[in-house]
Amino acid sequence: MRLLHTSDWHLGRAFHRVALLGAQAEFIGHLVTTVRERGVDAVVVSGDVYDRAVPPLAAVELFDDALHRLADLGVPTVMISGNHDSARRLGVGAGLIGRAGIHLRTDPAAVGTPVVLRDDFGEVAFYGLPYLEPALVKDEFGVRTAGHEAVLAAAMERVRADLATRPPGTRSVVLAHAFVTGGEASDSERDITVGGVAAVPAGVFDGADYVALGHLHGCQTLTERVRYSGSPLPYSFSEAEHRKSMWLVDLDARGGVTAERVDCPVPRPLARIRGTLEELLTDARFARHEEAWTEATLTDAVRPAEPMARLSERFPHTLSLVFAPERAPDDPEVSYARRLAGRGDQEIAEDFVAHVRGAGPDRLERIVLRDAFDAARADEAVREVAR
C-alpha cells in the first residue's frame, strides 16, 4: 500500500505579515496532483490542519476544497486533530464525511477504533491518535499522572489490544501529533510541555508498522518506521534551512517500509543575513538573497537610523529585523542573554527566585512552580476547546 504522509498545514496562518493562503492553496493542488500521478492508495494528515481553534473563513473554504478534491479522487484520507486545532470543530460531521472516504479522527476515546483499508496483501488498520492534552484526557485513559508519555502509552495500549484481535498479518499505521524524543524543534511550534517534559520516547509506538507523526515542522526520520513529514510551508525563520516535503511511503506485504521525500512548492526562499547595516547594504555575498523573505540581524554597536527602510531598498521582502550589537564578553547585557538562551519557563522562573532571595527553590517549590505552569497551559487548552 502506498501512503502519502503530510501534516501541519496550519491553514490560515501568515508568515510574519505575509498572507500564505495562496501558497497553501498551491500546496493543496500539489498534494492532489501527487496523489493522482504517483498512485497513492491513502493520504494521512497528522494534525494541525488549521492554525487556530477558530480559523478564518477563507481557511475553512480552502479546507473544504481540499476535502472535495481528495474525495473526487476516490483515495481514502485519514486526518487527526493537532494542538492548534479545535478537535470538536474539526470533527463535526465526521460520520457523514467518512462516507466520502475522508476519515476525521478527533475523539480521544476512539483511538482504538481504526479505519481499515485493504490492498492485494490484506488489511491495513489506520489508528488516529489526535493531540492528547494530558490534563484533559487523563481520566479517559485512567492514568495517574497527567503527562504526555503516560497518555500516549495508554492510547497505544488500546491500539495494540485492537490489533491483537485482527487477522494475522494485519499491518498497522498510527497517526499521532506529539513531540517525540530525537525530533528537532523550530521556533514556530506551540509549546506543549507538561510537568517539565514535552518529549516522549519513540518506543511508545512499538508494534506499529508505520508511525506518521505531526507537530514538528521539519521533515525528520527518527527510525525507519517513525517519521515526521514536517510542515509544507515555512512558518518561522528558524525553518530557513528546511527542505519542505511529504513522505511517500510504501508498505509491503509484511509491513516493511520504504520512503521517498516529495518536495513541496516553494513560494519564496528564506534568508537569514547578519552584519552591520553598511555590510548588508553593500557586500556582494548577500546579492543572492535580494528576492528572498529576509530576516536581518544588525550587529552595529549603535542602532542605525531607519534601518528597515534602508534595508528594504536592497531586500524588498525584509520581514524581520533583529538587533544584536557586538559587545565585549563581560558586558552585562551579553551575560543576561546567555543565561536566558535555550532555557525554558521553569528554569527562568527558578533563576528569578534565586536572584530575588539569594537561594534557588527547593524541591517542593520547584513542584509548585511546575504545577503553576502546567495549570496555565491546561487553562489555555480549555479555552481553546471552548472557542
UniProtKB/TrEMBL annotation:
Instruction: Give the Gene Ontology MF terms in alphabetical order.
Output: 3'-5' exonuclease activity; endonuclease activity
* Domain spans labelled Calcineurin-like phosphoesterase: 1-218
Query: Which intervals hold domain Nuclease SbcCD subunit D C-terminal?
Result: 267-355
Q: Which GO BP terms sit in this record? A: DNA recombination; DNA replication
Entry keywords, A to Z: DNA recombination, DNA replication, Endonuclease, Exonuclease, Hydrolase, Nuclease
- InterPro entries named among the record's database cross-references: Calcineurin-like_PHP, DNA_Repair-Maintenance_Comp, Metallo-depent_PP-like, Mre11_N, SbcD, SbcD_C
One Pfam family of this chain: Metallophos
Q: Does the keyword Hydrolase apply?
A: yes
Similarity comment: family membership: Belongs to the SbcD family.
Q: Which NCBIfam families match?
A: sbcd
Function, please? SbcCD cleaves DNA hairpin structures. These structures can inhibit DNA replication and are intermediates in certain DNA recombination reactions. The complex acts as a 3'->5' double strand exonuclease that can open hairpins. It also has a 5' single-strand endonuclease activity.
Q: What interactions and quaternary structure are annotated?
A: Heterodimer of SbcC and SbcD.
Q: What is the recorded name of this protein? A: Nuclease SbcCD subunit D
Name the source organism: Streptomyces zinciresistens K42
